[in-house]
Design goal:
Elements: H1 29-47, H2 54-75, H3 81-99, H4 113-124, H5 145-157, H6 165-184, H7 190-203, H8 210-227, H9 237-251, H10 253-257, H11 259-272, H12 276-308, H13 334-348, H14 356-380, H15 389-412, H16 415-437, H17 445-448, H18 452-461, H19 468-479, E1 486-489, H20 494-497, E2 501-502, H21 517-528, H22 533-540, E3 550-554, E4 557-558, E5 561-562, E6 573-576, E7 583-588
Parallel strand pairs: 1-2, 1-3
Antiparallel strand pairs: 3-7, 4-5, 6-7
Length: 589
């Protein structure tokens, strides 16, 4: 059987089991990254930079300049892409470490989603099994690998999980550059792979969502290597499946937002393939391995869903990004120009370059998903998180832009121009990412280049106090050392510090579908209406979702549900109302 579409690029090739000799020189990027990261941590500890002073935040930029002085001349004579990748990734770690110097918290502290990530990590410090960040008996809905690794590291080291979040963010974001380079270098030459990996970090490199950064930087080359027909061959089915499974348990969202493009690419590849049966069999093998790898997360969630169902509320949140500009390539910035070049490239090269048509399908698929979910949002209020398509589209367009420029240089310029272009991309990516990570209060940059990341960096240094130690001490006085009671807390940060079992989460539109948030709140409304102290004690010990052993209220309130001192019989509850922040603690005896 021959290829059916004569206009298609000649990129159909047999599935290759190997990608080159061993040891592969590209893997040199890994030890170089680890060594550079360790050196960066030591350098920050030695210099002790103040991230709110110009002198302090110039440390990463100075190191970037010194690296450029060494690497650019060397690149004219040597193949140093793997080394350059490791050094650039190590520099990213240095940059983020500098911005967090002086605080034990990660980016954004325990604000919003980051408090929930810290709570999930704390949960996994006491259990290795899939569990919700707050309601321990319910399996996780949010992908578990990232907080699970932090929690298991906490269990092994004895360091509280919330104190490891900053290091996890730094290592994950910087490691994402290396992971992306390794995958892209199976598709294109290593210098181009490095340029794609570095530039993609500018499109989406939010260190708060480090798990999302590594997922999106990896998922794009993985899709091409798994479902497409790259000239250098696809990934072996077992490794493609393993990486796919890891993506699912790290952050499966980009597979959903890109699902229409993936289906279109897989369908087109199947149609053009010389052996369609073999291609389908390969996809089945990939899916099987991915299911096996992700089963520790997917199986408990599906089983719980089939057994009792739930209430999907997480995508009811009306985020500001829902009305943000969906066309990043129209921004009058270097990033916008690169993305515009990428859009032009996937259209202009779709019949002559192997990468153009697959990337065009993925871009179109992401926009199609966005439009469909916008229609759903108008109809029933559920967003399907369509605003997150921007986090996929940005790196997609950047990758296309780098490949477009690389194609033009290959056809019309000498090798030296390619080296110069790579140097420009790395320096631009470094300076851009450095600017994004600056904290609020550093002048003149924070005022000139405002971004949400500035707030998140500053928040890491100004996390409001929470009386977790006092609460733990008072509870253990009543319920015994090492107690892990079920708690109704008005502040989710409690669970970032303490691995206690929660009755429910506080924020409705971030709640796990399986905890049935509205039903739990209805139980609390019913409970708050019980005014007799004895009846209240009995009712709070036998709600539809189990007993509440400890109440942590703010000014006697949990969200909009008010409780009264008279409901808590002193013979049955210890009442502590001398904690800071109007925090009231009530402990069942």
């Amino acid at each position: 059987m021959t290829t059916r579409l004569a206009s298609a690029p000649r990129s159909i090739s047999p599935i290759r089991a190997d990608a080159g000799r061993w040891p592969d020189p590209r893997w040199l990027s890994v030890p170089v990254w680890l060594a550079a990261t360790a050196a960066g941590f030591v350098l920050v500890g030695w210099i002790r930079p103040d991230p709110f002073a110009v002198r302090g935040v110039l440390l990463p930029l100075t190191v970037l300049g010194l690296l450029a002085l060494v690497l650019v001349p060397a690149a004219l004579r040597l193949r140093v892409s793997a080394v350059a990748c490791g050094l650039f990734a190590g520099w990213v770690a240095l940059d983020l470490k500098t911005m967090l110097y002086g605080t034990p918290y990660g980016f954004a502290g325990l604000f919003g989603d980051m408090g929930r990530i810290a709570a999930a990590a704390t949960r996994y410090s006491v259990t290795p099994w899939s569990a919700d960040a707050f309601v321990e008996e319910v399996p996780a809905e949010y992908p578990m690998l990232y907080p699970w690794l932090i929690g298991r590291a906490s269990a092994l080291s004895g360091v509280p999980a919330w104190r490891l979040v900053a290091e996890a963010e730094i290592l994950t974001v910087s490691g994402a550059v290396v992971a992306a380079f390794l995958l892209w270098s199976r598709l294109v030459k290593p210098p181009v792979a490095l340029a794609v990996a570095a530039a993609s970090l500018v499109a989406f490199g939010d260190p708060r969502k480090a798990f999302g950064v590594v997922a999106v930087l990896v998922v794009i080359p993985w899709i091409l290597l798994t479902f497409g027909s790259p000239p250098r061959g696809r990934l072996p089915w077992w490794s493609a499946g393993a990486i796919g499974g890891l993506i699912v348990i790290t952050y499966q969202g980009f597979l959903i937002y890109g699902s229409l493009g993936i289906l279109a690419l897989a369908g087109l590849t199947w149609w053009r393939h010389d052996d369609r049966r073999a291609y389908l069999l390969r996809l089945l093998k990939v899916s099987g391995v991915a299911a096996l790898v992700s089963g520790v997360y997917v199986v408990p969630y599906l089983a719980a869903t089939l057994a009792g169902g739930g209430q999907a509320v997480a995508d009811l949140y009306v985020a500001p990004d829902l009305v943000a500009n969906p066309f990043p390539f129209l921004q009058p910035t270097p990033l916008g120009l690169l993305q515009l070049a990428g859009l032009a490239g996937v259209i202009g090269y779709r019949r002559t370059a192997w990468w153009a048509q697959p990337l065009l399908l993925l871009i179109a698929g992401a926009y199609a998903y966005r439009v469909l979910m916008m229609a759903r949002f108008v109809a029933d209020g559920h967003t399907g998180f369509f605003h997150y398509t921007s986090r996929l589209l940005g790196p997609l367009l950047v990758a296309a832009g780098v490949l477009t420029v690389a194609t033009l240089l290959k056809r019309h310029a000498a090798r030296e121009y390619g080296v110069a272009a790579l140097a420009v991309v790395l320096l631009w990516a470094g300076v851009s990412y450095w600017r994004l990570a600056l904290p609020e209060g550093v002048q003149p940059w924070a005022a000139k280049w405002p971004s949400a990341t500035h707030f998140y960096t500053a928040r890491a240094h100004h996390e409001p106090a929470f009386p977790a130690r006092e609460i733990r001490a008072r509870v253990e006085e009543v319920r015994g050392r090492g107690a892990r009671p079920r708690v109704l807390s008005a502040d989710e940060r409690l669970f970032a510090y303490l691995p206690w079992r929660g009755y429910t989460s506080v924020d409705r539109t971030s709640a796990n579908t399986l905890i049935r948030w509205d039903e739990r709140r209805a139980e609390l409304v019913r409970l708050a209406a019980v005014t007799d102290p004895q009846a209240f004690a009995e009712a709070s010990a036998s709600t539809a979702f189990g007993a509440i052993d400890v109440f942590v209220l703010r000014d006697w309130r949990w969200r909009d549900v008010s409780f009264q001192r008279g409901q808590f019989d002193p013979a049955r509850f210890a009442v502590v109302d001398d904690l800071p922040g109007k925090t009231v603690l009530l402990i069942r005896k």
